[in-house]
Request: fold
Amino acid sequence: MSELPLSRLTGLPAERHEATSATADIGTRTAWLLLAIAMLVAFVVRLPGVFWLVGLGATPDQSFNVDANRFIIAALNFQDPAMKPDGYPLFMTTQLYVLAKVLALVGLDDINYAILLRSISLTYAILTIPLTFLFCRVLGFSNLVALIAAWLLSMAPMHVLLSHAGTPDISILFIFYLTILMAVLYRLRGNDWFFHAVCALTGIALANKFYLPALVPLGLVILTGAPRAMPRRIFLATCIGIACFSVASFFNYTPWDFGRLLQMIAFD
Reply:
């Protein structure tokens, strides 16, 4: 995997970084083993939150988090347009609905939607840990620095709390940083597939939470490229982004839903 020299990031001589890496780094196998331990510890710490207060509401599937409960109600009544979550983007609802259908196909019919939604958040939370490690390695940091960054993230209090909330906050963290990673890899390697990944992830990020900062990596990639290729990139980004937004929303999000979202924000 291509790496960005640290000397370009810090302004320090490359020899200094090489000397530090030689004396303070750890082996790749050891790093991945410790990373796996970090993921296991993070999973054990977060797992009780998946079942917290489940079954104590008016219905077995009720969540006491208002946003999460919107997604649960919408997934339970997915075919009813009136039950959409007040104009919220539908990626969390879509994931919950599709996953519940897949589990039902394999014989798991008695599914608690609150637990399932929190499990989706937990999965994203765990995946952000190796993503952090890989991101640091791509940027040229040593195995040790990348591992410390991953461990610090795994034990961050806010990361722990959001990992089982069933809200889009933790999933957008994973999607946004994966978007930045794809943008960095595109600038390093020039492979168009990385550009396509940036466009796709931007559309998914908008379907997840209307996370407008997700447009920044895509915009930088387009603006820093060859000027003659800019119209083509804008066209590709628009087409791929809209397509992925629609798929992530299960082709169920309309301009009228966006209007409901604006009304909710205005009077929130």
